[in-house]
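ok trying again, last paste got cut off:
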Amino acid sequence: MKKQRVLSVLLTVLFLLSAVPICTLSAASKSINISTDISSLSQTDIDKVMSSQVPYLLNDMKNNTSSYGITDSISSLSIGRSFQFASYGNDGAIAYNDSILYYPVYSKGSIVAILSLCKYGGNVSCALGVDFAPAINGLLNKGSSSVALIDDNGTLYAIDPSNNLQVLASTTKKETLTAQKKVAFSFNSVAEKKNSITKEDPSFYSYTTYRPGNMYSKGLTIFAEYAPYSKNLAGYQAVPQTVAGVQKNICWAATMASIVRFERPTSYSTLTAQQVCTDLNVPYVSEGWDIIQPGYTHYLGALYNTTVYYGALSNSTIISTINNSDPIAMSSTNLAGTSCHHTALCGYTMVDSALYTIRIMDPAYVTFKTATYSSSGWAYAFGSDTYVWNSGIKIR
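nice, full thing came through this time. structure:
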């Protein structure tokens, strides 16, 4: 098979998680330029992040398992060998984006979460969430020794050696696995070491807890004592972007529903994304700020001064907003400027003056993620593409 390696991001795929659509970017949302300043993740980048950022994310997951949808307790975590999504071109060529890496996170012999590293604008952002870990475990628990990951023009698949094919995520719609698609992919034709996950835990990186100042190296267990300053909005609820149980292109509506539930629980404790679309008299499609901003006013009233912001918010603005017990609506756009995904920012941790993390409600997986944050340019990964936080709504 012809193989092609690329260092620039593939601009034909879109964003995020679970077998779920991501919004097509409306004209009203195209208000800020997004840099295409990306470069490959170096080993130096990886080692630095694994030492200075990742331990805090893992520690948060260990201490807040229920927030991530994890039912079992976690005593220790280890990170396996990195993998990438193989971008499968129309000509059958496989390519990789070396500014993005994923890692399986293991506990008690199972993959409990997915760690992603994304280099953008010279900075490396990390995100940790359950994401597609359950789907991978489902294939591995059928007896497969490994699975391969494929990004086929914005739809993410996993395939095992028995050619069981499963959709992990889609950027436009819930993909139907047709007979033609099943024939097009076979494990032997697409599996490579770079895009495979194994059931065995390689234990490339092991953590218990973290003590600031300790240097990190492969195989070294890091112990910890620290008390970061943080606030997560208690009782914040995850809302799916579904209609009658079917994923729709309404992540913006699910984000709005989650924020309105939190701000006005007496009146809207069960508000859904579907009901938002009905109340605003719009179809189940992506919408721009010209529809979304008045929607917040409709539910929250004149006492809430909703404003659209552009660019990533500063650390100080995030802290003051969350400290005021208000969530923040976020919109992240792919580098091609053709699609976006809406999420809610509902917590933060200030580890020290140089490291912040944010907690995100993601309506795609209907769960919470934690990510390191830099206001100079925050990005995260979907398959082989990069998405950048570039706008959103502050409700007061």
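cool. The mean pLDDT is 79. The CA atoms of residues 317 and 323 lie 10 Å apart.
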